[in-house]
Write a structure and sequence with these properties.
Layout lengths: L3 E4 L6 E4 L1 H14 L7 H6 L1 H8 L2 H12 L3 H17 L22 H19 L7 H26 L5 H21 L4 H18 L3 H28 L1
Antiparallel strand pairs: 1-2
Keywords: Membrane, Transmembrane, Transmembrane helix
């Protein structure tokens, strides 16, 4: 069970929210506030960076991807550029694979991250494909920072399917883990700190509601018991081997 049951004060209404959906809400909230900054030092020292954010760099990236994928011919041109570069030794096959650019899709929770990640991977070739959508070094730097921010959400979502038996207790602890990583990231990504705060606030709101329910207490207790059991089993087996 990936979701968490939330109950109203009279416990008559039951609301289920799946883990990826809540993560997506936090991501979209952060992206909507990506152009905001409330640090006067950053406003003075990084005007160009902030202007790139305010230009909606994610939309510019999306336009480039859409242009490169506009037809089968353009997709084939991009593939040919990659293969030609490999043959000429401009890049190694293991460094730049013959893959296509990815669109972001509403129904795919990590699609914006995957779109930006693939664009940055293929940018040298996609730039040569359509120069009118060229991105400068600062724009690429800002996109790389946004990818870094989105990677936290992507990685934590990947951890749930990786579990053989994903449980509510594991999901709750992943929320806690994600929030802590995002808070730590504000030092590394100061220009995105406001957006990060907005994402964290959304996650905190959800966790605050979940902590009011008996389900939360049960899940945490269950997780503690599982850890204790696994530790005892591991200790027991290691003792036998000794």
């Amino acid at each position: 069970m990936y979701g968490l049951s939330l109950f109203s004060s009279n416990e008559t209404d039951e609301l289920w929210r799946c883990f990826p959906h809540v993560i997506n809400i936090a991501v979209q909230t952060g992206l909507k506030n990506m152009t905001e900054t409330h640090n006067p030092n950053l406003l003075c020292d990084s005007l160009e960076y902030i202007r790139v954010l305010q230009s909606d760099i994610v939309s510019l990236a999306r336009q480039l991807v859409t242009a490169c994928r506009a037809s089968g011919q353009r997709r084939e041109e991009l593939s040919s550029l990659i293969r030609d570069g490999q043959d000429k030794g401009d890049w190694k096959k293991e460094d730049l694979h013959d893959v296509t650019l990815l669109r972001d899709v509403v129904t795919r929770w990590s699609s914006i991250y995957l779109m930006i990640d693939r664009l940055l991977e293929l940018y040298p070739t996609s730039l040569r494909n359509l120069r009118k959508h060229e991105l400068n070094d600062l724009q690429l730097k800002v996109l790389a920072d946004i990818r870094h921010y989105l990677a936290f959400f992507h990685i934590v979502q990947e951890e749930v399917p990786a579990e053989k038996t994903p449980t509510l207790s594991i999901v709750l602890l992943l929320y806690e883990k994600l929030i802590q990583h995002l808070k730590d990231a504000k030092t590394l990504l100061p220009h995105l700190a406001y957006a990060i705060d907005k994402s964290v606030r959304k996650l905190d709101e959800y966790l605050a509601e979940s902590r009011k329910t008996w389900v939360y207490a049960l899940a945490i207790s269950t997780y503690s018991l599982v850890l204790a059991y696994l530790f005892s089993e591991t200790f027991f087996k290691s003792s036998i081997q000794l």
